[in-house]
From TrEMBL:
<feature type="domain" description="Protein kinase">
    <location>
        <begin position="15"/>
        <end position="151"/>
    </location>
</feature>
<dbReference type="Pfam" id="PF00069">
    <property type="entry name" value="Pkinase"/>
</dbReference>
<protein>
    <submittedName>
        <fullName>Serine/threonine protein kinase</fullName>
    </submittedName>
</protein>
<keyword id="KW-0723">Serine/threonine-protein kinase</keyword>
<dbReference type="InterPro" id="IPR017441">
    <property type="entry name" value="Protein_kinase_ATP_BS"/>
</dbReference>
<keyword id="KW-0418">Kinase</keyword>
<keyword id="KW-0067">ATP-binding</keyword>
<dbReference type="GO" id="GO:0004674">
    <property type="term" value="F:protein serine/threonine kinase activity"/>
</dbReference>
<dbReference type="InterPro" id="IPR000719">
    <property type="entry name" value="Prot_kinase_dom"/>
</dbReference>
<feature type="binding site">
    <location>
        <position position="44"/>
    </location>
    <ligand>
        <name>ATP</name>
    </ligand>
</feature>
<keyword id="KW-0808">Transferase</keyword>
<dbReference type="InterPro" id="IPR011009">
    <property type="entry name" value="Kinase-like_dom_sf"/>
</dbReference>
<keyword id="KW-0547">Nucleotide-binding</keyword>
Amino acid sequence: MSASAEVGEVLAGKYRVERVLGAGGMGVVVAARHVTLGSLVALKFMIPSALDVAGAAERFIREAQAVARLRGDHIAHVTDLGTLDTGAPYIVMEFLDGADLDAVIRVRGRLPVAEAVEYMIGTCKAMVEAHGAGIIHRDLKPHNLLAPAIF
């Protein structure tokens, strides 16, 4: 497997990649369909080069375990955790249809105050739950916030 995933590739023997949703320096997130159940999920996995970073895989696994405890309406729920054939850990989350808030702002420009406040209220609710569980996001920005599918 390369630093990304190919459409049609089956990961962990059960998740067929439908499209790449995003990629960063340490990992990739794909939309994938469970080959037996047919459910659509978001699957996040570490890229091979990130496995060389001391402690990165352990932090990734701890992230999944911590987020799996959260149940709020404004947080993607974790449903599975495992290891790919490459040795890279992966996290399976519910697939949430939409665009990131950064994309919404680029398309629409400045948002009406009432709408921006709604996004921030949802973000604050998620952060209250996360902080209450001892989780600090560390990368909170519009690109990492989901907006509704229709904007």
